[in-house]
Design a protein that fits this description.
Elements (H helix, E strand, L loop, with lengths): L3 H17 L2 H8 L5 H27 L7 H28 L1 H24 L5 H18 L12 H26 L4 H23 L7 H28 L2 H7 L2 H12 L7 H18 L15
Helix pairs in contact: 1-9, 1-11, 2-9, 3-4, 3-8, 3-9, 4-5, 4-7, 4-8, 5-6, 5-7, 5-10, 6-12, 7-8, 8-9
Length: 308
């Protein structure tokens, strides 16, 4: 019974990563005349509004334990800023160093930042199993990114790499803020609604500043709905549910399934091809995710006979 809940939580996070992984393919198929910043703002606006609405309805019905106390409000604001800053940093990185490399740098750095911040905040060391599996996953990500192929892979320069690393740090911030609220009795829908609803309000002026005319076109509307409903609302409801039963470190590593999903969709839908080294990298990454998903063995202490 104890192992069933984590397994369901693992599958929930992997499903969320699958949804996240459709973002690049959806943008490529839509081919809208919009900047990455505008697309990111529209995505957060629609998805955050949906999550915020779901949270408000649920909040009125359940009256949760975790009310908006000053400490919780600070966690919501920190998490919302993490959600909001992730979008421009992620797209700035992918625009500079390329979609594939920018994505794997951001998502590859996320587990590292999450583990370090979690250790500092809670003064606890990550488990040896998590460290080994995450190292294996990051090695697979490095191979898949083409970083070992030569200097031409880094043609975007250090600023693009720093932007992608900043996106990984932003992810770690809102993942840990979400976990902190969950640990204080908040429902997962309330956490996602509070963080993304706040981020949606902040993204509205960003969308108008970046240009919103493309949203009312058929392709733009379809893209916006897919990104907002599937890759934010549905994905983060599943993500939050899994995060309740798992550590933030484990969740951050599991979301490395996103670049794997994106690569498979690129091959199947967009007709892209992978080099042998990239293929090997994704095989190693997939193996690491399988290892992380396996239930840990319980160590039983020997029974000490009691004195008569």
């Amino acid at each position: 019974m104890c192992n069933n809940v984590p397994m369901r939580a693992i599958f929930a996070v992997l499903f969320a990563a699958l949804c996240f992984g459709t973002t690049g393919t959806a943008q490529a198929l839509a081919a809208v005349d919009a900047s990455p910043l505008a697309v990111g703002a529209a995505r957060v606006l629609v998805g955050g509004a949906l999550l915020g609405g779901i949270a408000l309805v649920s909040w009125r019905r359940s009256r949760p334990v975790g009310r908006i106390a000053p400490g919780n409000l600070a966690r919501v604001l920190v998490g919302a800023l993490g959600v909001l800053t992730y979008q421009p940093l992620f797209f700035a990185g992918t625009s500079s160093v390329g979609v594939a490399l920018g994505t794997v740098i951001a998502l590859g750095a996320a587990p590292v930042f999450t583990g370090v911040l979690d250790s500092v905040i809670h003064r606890r060391r990550p488990s040896l199993r998590w460290c080994l599996v995450t190292a294996l996953a990051l090695f697979g990500v490095a191979l898949a990114s083409g970083v070992f192929a030569g200097a031409e892979s880094m043609s975007g320069g250090p600023l693009g790499v720093l932007a992608s690393l900043g996106a990984g740090l932003s992810y770690a911030v809102y993942a840990l803020a979400s976990k902190s609220l969950l640990d204080r009795g908040w429902a997962s829908s309330h956490v996602m609604g509070a963080l993304f609803g706040s981020a949606a309000a902040l993204s509205l002026p960003v969308l108008f500043a970046a240009g919103a005319a493309w949203v009312v076109t058929p392709r733009g509307l379809g893209l916006t709905l897919w990104l907002g409903v599937i890759t934010v609302a549905v994905a983060y409801l599943s993500f939050g549910w899994g995060l309740r039963s798992l550590s933030a470190n484990t969740v951050a590593t599991l979301t490395l399934a996103e670049p794997l999903t994106a690569a498979l969709l690129g091959i199947a839908v967009l007709g892209e091809t992978l080099s042998p080294m990239t293929t090997l990298g994704f095989v190693i990454l997939g193996a690491a995710l399988v290892l992380l998903s396996l239930p840990a063995r319980e160590t039983r202490r020997p029974r000490v006979p009691q004195a008569a």
